[in-house]
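Protocol step 4 of 6: record predicted structures for both targets in the notebook before any analysis. Target 1:
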Amino acid sequence: MKYHVYAIGNALVDKEFEVTDEFLKSHNIEKGVMSLLDEDAHVELLQTLKDSFGLKKRAGGGSAANSIVAISQFGGKTFYACKVANDEQGSFYMKDLHAAGVDTRLKDVRCDGSTGKCMVMVTPDAERTMNTFLGITSDFSEAELHLDELKQAEYLYIEGYLVTSDISRAAAIKARKVAAENGVKTAMTFSDPSMVTYFSDGIKEIFADGVDLLFCNEEEALTFAETDDLDEAIATIAPKVGKLVITLGKKGASIITNGKKVDVPSEPVEAIDTNGAGDMFAGAFLYGITHGLSDEQAGRLANKAAAKVVSTFGARLDKEIHQQLLAEI
């Protein structure tokens, strides 16, 4: 086994802004979810944000990428399959992943086009709202899977955002098939309530007859199970997965394995920016269960890491902070 986790997902350069609720309302931006934009709309909104608020931070992003970076920073061995263009943003993204210790084959697959970008808008209540131009990452396909690396992993981790592209969804389904044929366990995240709401058929296609590990938040679980009762949602989803992990915000998280439920309380924190909280939780949890931690210990580590990331601006933490968190478990 060469990798603890091999992940596939969108490659996006995050541009982060501190905005007001009034700004979101005046520009008809749906708060708290990820919305897709075409390139012209993205360029226009980006300029408006720069003029109105100024750029707070640029960083490598993407849901699964954030998780895979966290695993690597804790000390896990990771590989990320994604697609960036042969442009300045793509070079920035590749160097950012490699600096975090994540293996890729991006030098082999970069081509002409525009690297994906995401505008992350954070309001005073710490809620994050994202508008995304996928660019070349919408063409992430089976050609970028690098199956030899996948076959050497303990877990395949699939990002729910891939569902928005037919080509990328097909790649995720292919990766699942190869993983199953080679004894690699599959983990999946629903990524965002909008994915389960607006792309439910595609989510169910990737989910298929279930996965070994599923991450979702309460809203996503309720939407997927088509109920307003969390216990009913758990009863619907849990039998289809080996391990179900539901994040519950200030209420912590619930981990359900073979009918046994473990509740892990949240860490008290003053939230500044919720961007990346779910990604960090998933990364920390995956690190934990691939390094001998119990569900409860992995959940504690994940909650601590998520609390730390929401108390800072941005979706990632320095390596030293990861090691400090690990020492506390």
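Target 2:
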Amino acid sequence: MPPSGIREFFDLVQEMDDVISLGVGEPDFPTPWKICDAAIQGLRHGITSYTSNAGLLELREAIAEDLYARYGVEYDPANEIVITAGVSEGMDVAMRAVLNTGDEVVVPQPCYVSYVPCVELAGGRAIALETREDDAFRLQPAALDEVITDRTRALLMGYPNNPTGAVMSRDDLLPIAEVADRHDLLVISDEIYAHLTYDGSHTCFASLPGMKARTLLLNGFSKAYAMTGWRLGYACGPPELIEGLVRVHGYTALCGSVIAQLGALEALRSCEPEMRQMVQQYDERRRVFVKGLNDIGLRCFEPKGAFYAFPSVQETGLTSREFSRRLLFEEKVAVVPGPAFGPCGEGFVRCTYATAMDQLQEALARLSNFVQRLGT
């Protein structure tokens, strides 16, 4: 199992000065103060103990209300929601709760770096399914149908997508739902970037007809509310599935941090305006940065969600890794090679535009210098 391709370049950046990092997908905004204050008040009142394994009921109730208001999906806070230590832990416990040794999980790629390792650590077999720039990196139902076998247990997908920024509309997802239903698949839907969409609203997979009963919905607070270091997420699904997750979760993380849970509760109650302001700024940066990449000559698919651009570097004649290393050492701009997100990411690099506009513009200037020197 290789080390994370993201962390490799992150570690290099820590050893260098004057680097503009477009590598780690983390909001550059501070956590809204109301969230911090709610956590501080909890500390002042001595709320520092364990919660139930499933998390604070009050927070689960707020999550259920939020999901119903946004997507019309009803979850019972008592037995259909569990609070996790970020979506990453939710993904890990989900795989261990669901998979038997040798079970197959279809994983559309490019995808987040932890998907395949989480499947393999649980004894499963990840079946990579390439998505293509020509299809706007959307999962195609016919391609999904072709790779399903009698060992296929689940489909694991994340939209809005990291690293490409691709989204799938309701019309895109309905044929995927039909394939999942026909083959009796569990769909594990990582929707951590659900609030970060720019051309239309997000479609929650569990909101599709008949899909709530076969969907494990993963989401959290890191991206939308700038709470990455708080490490808090949640999983929603049928009671028998959540019971399995809670059992594994209880033996690993025990429960999510109570202080983080208090902050998340405040985020849901009062921080929609702050979240919307952050999304608006991401959108402005997205437009400037993607246009700049295309003007330089690095062809870039227009991302519709998350906060990543996935430009092609094929015309430079360099591999993704060569491009990334030379860019870092020659121009001090850090990006992530596309193959970190699956073999089909070769020929691309991932850049995050979750950084200040002046830094993005300077990064574009350095990228332009680098590309011009290459003579492409």
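Step 5 preliminary note on target 2. The domain at 33-269 is CATH 3.40.640.10 (Aspartate Aminotransferase; domain 2). Residues 208 and 304 are 21 Å apart (CA to CA).
Proceed to step 6 after PI sign-off.
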